[in-house]
Write a structure and sequence with these properties.
heterodimer; A: Dipeptide-binding Protein, domain 3; four-stranded antiparallel sheet; B: mainly alpha; 2 strands; about 75% helix
Chain lengths: ~500, ~300
């Protein structure tokens, strides 16, 4: 009984088995898995810990993936960031974009048969903004009211041109949903929950009364397989039919398998390595730029991410509104060293690069290696995610690594939220940038917003508030009998149109 | 079968184990040699990441020579990691076992010889600590502090001394009733001198045997902590870390996890065998060949 063993015995077993396991996997052949042909089983890289879209886990990708199958939003974004209708058919702003009016789809029913109406939207929005979902912070002061004609009006205290984009983070549930979020919630989405074990498995069946037609799948199962090599084996053995977020080194192994289809899609994420400008040693923009110059990101990306990485040309990903290409920062270790010496940089002081997540370890170690080459004592520091977040918000870091995504596809979410002086997130403070961001956040004119965000991006890039080395692509892999699955740039693929042949 | 025939058959069987007995000792000696002198001959920079050389199979030519045991996902030489890992493992094990033995011995002898309330207090404290799973406590301690070698030693020694304390307490309890101890007491020899001169030498044997077994467990626990990503800083090479780094590559680059895994398993098994030999030796009160005659 493995779980009856003592810890020491288990360690002994790990040590003894590892070399053998290595050999065994090295020469094993793939055998057919169980052939439950009616179920479509997928393994997301992010665990579904909760179904509650308004709880503290509501912004987690795992929760959003499940919520997307069970509920609907008012608007949703396609792969290119274009907003399209979901529960709302159309939406219009008033002249200064402080009030947005959403016209709802007619005849929509919840999975329990009750009708969907504007009251559900209003009560859901109140629950969302009053709840613990971190995304609720983007909606401060905004209120929703149901009009007599069945439309819903969102009133913002100041002009909010990015509101429809932000609403892609908001799911609508029935107004009757109890305060204690149910294990099998009622929703308008394409699937209903049959069985849910947090962090392990979520089984769903089609919602026959879904407004866009019931899905063809008989059963949809989300399985959590944290270990990437196990996930790949499960895919090869047809235990799961799709997975995504596949690392490059595994993509190479899959491409030889005729039964597996691999596709990459550009995400909204950019590898972001902020410098703590509040630190004396990093306060000088020349130092920050020199450190950026000292790292050979081109080689690192082509070696570690030949298929899912690309040198970034801006602070934001190309699919995000407000993206403006910037001149590349060329790798030049000699010039970097010279610039650091001229700026009086203290080479004896170690710089910690904080990150969280084993998948980033190789990248961060490679960056640290390049910085060490020019004499900067860079040290990778891997943190447990809760500690990482606490240190990040408490500004207890020198260099911080994150894969920053923009799920709303709008620069307001990232630039407007993270870079003003008042945000206190990077230690960088520039009144000129503040003014641009404030203006961009309160202008209804799309073209003007685009120009303002382009100017803001240029300041952030030129002053090297951080290094912005890489645009991230997401590799999706699915069995060739899966039809109708589209790779999603936000790690949230839609399964409502999937069929199995 | 005559007696002579039986002797002829069994004689070589007795001899062979005697030769085999040297194997664990030899293996451990080799590891110690590698740990001490290996880094002198093998050049390795744990911080550098020669990405052009990544995931090369054993025997491949790299930009800086030949990778005997292949390279890992960042292009670093696996052979060098095995050599430097030996140094890390043995250093940590020696330090941890020394600290644990010293603390355990002191507590055990004091408790066993003094008896009474002191013994009751110390023994119950040991019992309480014994209730904690060692590795869990080590994970908690190692997780609380910044990564360093000292923290790993501390975390592992924290529960390692308990076995020593229990062992020496038991021995001291029976030794203090012996005639020579009583005689020393009657003659007015100080208690400090009785402990060091009349009790300690008789506890030394079993403690050495236990230290050997603990050594193996510490090597494994350190690898376990490193495998979980707790404890050692990134610039320190460790078998556990290398094995963990190869986890995702078992199917495509088996050599990353396999070679440090073999190195770890071989050392731990050898140390375990040596510990068994010591154990048998001291239980047989120092008679040569006691281990064999016992198994009969």
């Amino acid at each position: 009984m493995p779980h009856r063993r003592t810890t020491r015995h288990r360690l002994a077993a790990v040590a003894a088995v590892l070399p053998i396991a290595g050999l065994a996997v090295g020469c094993s052949t793939t055998s057919g898995g169980d052939g439950d042909s009616s179920a479509f089983t997928v393994a997301s890289p992010y665990a579904v810990q909760s179904l509650d879209p308004y709880g503290s886990a509501g912004a987690a990708i795992g929760t959003q993936l499940a919520d997307q199958a069970i509920f609907n939003r008012l608007v949703k974004a396609d792969a290119n960031g274009q907003l399209g209708p979901d529960l709302a058919e159309s939406w219009t702003p008033d002249a200064d974009a402080t009030t947005w009016t959403f016209t709802l789809r007619q005849g929509v029913k919840f999975s329990d048969g009750s009708a969907f109406d504007a009251a559900d939207v209003v009560s859901s929005f109140e629950r969302f903004t009053g709840g613990k979902n971190p995304n609720a912070g983007s909606f401060t002061g905004i209120t929703a009211t149901a009009a007599a004609d069945g439309t819903v009006a969102f009133d913002a205290p100041a002009p909010d041109p990015a509101l429809p984009g932000k609403l892609t983070l908001f799911f609508v549930t029935a107004s009757e949903t109890p305060a204690e979020f149910p294990a099998k919630p009622v929703g308008t989405g394409p699937f209903t929950v049959a069985n849910f074990t947090p962090g392990e498995v979520l089984e769903m069946t089609p919602n026959a009364s879904h407004f866009d037609g019931a899905p063809k799948l008989e059963r949809l199962v989300f399985r959590q397989i944290p270990e990437i090599s196990s996930r790949m084996t499960a895919l090869a053995n047809n235990e799961i039919q799709a997975t995504w977020g596949v690392p490059d080194d595994q993509v190479a192994g899959l491409s030889g398998n005729a039964d597996v289809h691999v596709e990459t899609v550009a995400s909204t994420s950019v590898y972001t390595m902020w410098f703590n400008s509040g630190r004396e040693s990093l306060a000088d923009a020349a130092v920050r730029k020199a450190l950026w110059q000292a790292v050979d990101f081109g080689t690192i990306i082509s070696s570690l991410y030949p298929q899912t990485g690309q040198l970034s040309d801006s602070v934001l990903a190309p699919a995000v509104f407000g993206h403006a290409p910037q001149p590349p920062v060329a790798y030049d270790p000699d010039a970097a060293k010279k610039a650091l010496e001229e700026a009086g940089f203290d080479f004896s002081k170690p710089l910690e690069i904080q990150f969280s997540g084993a998948e980033y370890r190789q990248f961060v170690e490679a960056v640290a290696a390049d910085l060490n080459k020019v004499g900067v004592k860079a040290e990778p520091a891997e943190k447990e995610s809760a500690v990482f977040l606490e240190d990040l918000l408490g500004m207890k870091w020198d260099i911080n690594f994150q894969s920053l995504s923009t799920p709303s596809f709008d620069a307001a979410t990232n630039l407007g939220r993270l870079y003003p002086c008042s945000a206190k997130r990077t230690g960088y403070c520039n009144p000129e940038l503040d003014e641009l961001l404030t203006k961009a956040g309160s202008t209804a004119d799309t073209a003007e917003r685009e120009t303002l965000y382009a100017q803001a991006s240029q300041i952030i890039w030129d002053d090297a508030v951080g290094m912005y080395p890489m645009q991230v692509k997401i590799a999706y892999a699915w069995r060739s009998n899966v039809q109708g699955l589209a790779a999603s740039p936000t790690y949230l693929p839609d399964f409502s149109k999937v069929t199995l042949s | 079968m005559t007696v002579a025939e039986e002797l002829a058959v069994t004689a070589p069987r007795v001899r062979r184990p005697r030769l085999l007995r040297w194997i664990p000792m030899g293996v451990i000696a080799l590891y110690v040699l590698v740990a001490v002198f290996g880094p002198v001959f093998v050049d390795y920079d744990p911080v550098a990441t020669p990405l052009a050389d990544r995931l090369l199979p054993p025997g491949s030519a790299t930009s800086s020579g030949t990778a005997l045991l292949g390279t890992d996902a960042l292009g670093r030489d696996v052979f060098a990691q095995v050599v430097y890992g030996a140094r890390t493992s043995i250093t940590i094990a020696v330090l941890t076992v020394s600290v644990a033995a010293l603390v355990g011995l002191t507590v055990g002898i004091v408790a066993g010889y003094t008896g009474g309330l002191v013994d009751a207090f110390l023994s119950r404290s040991v019992d309480v600590l014994l209730a904690f799973p060692g590795i869990v406590l080590a994970i908690v301690v190692a997780g609380l502090f910044d990564r360093s070698l000292a923290v790993v030693v501390l975390a592992l020694a924290l529960t390692g001394w308990i076995a020593f304390a229990r062992l020496t307490r038991g021995s001291a309890l029976s030794l203090r009733e012996r005639d020579w101890v009583a005689a020393a007491r009657v003659m007015g020899v100080s208690w400090r001198r009785i402990m060091t001169r009349h009790i300690l030498p008789f506890v030394a044997g079993p403690v050495v045997a236990l230290a050997t077994i603990e050594f193996g467990l510490v090597v494994l626990s350190e690898a376990g902590l490193s495998f979980l990503g707790i404890g050692l800083p990134p610039s320190t090479v460790s078998w556990g870390k290398t094995i963990a780094g190869g986890r995702d590559y078992l199917a495509t680059a088996w050599w990353i996890s396999t070679f440090p895994g073999i190195a770890l398993a071989l050392l731990v098994v050898s140390v375990g065998l040596l510990g068994d030999q010591f154990n048998a030796l001291f239980r047989g009160r120092g008679r040569a060949g006691a281990a064999n005659t016992r198994r009969g």
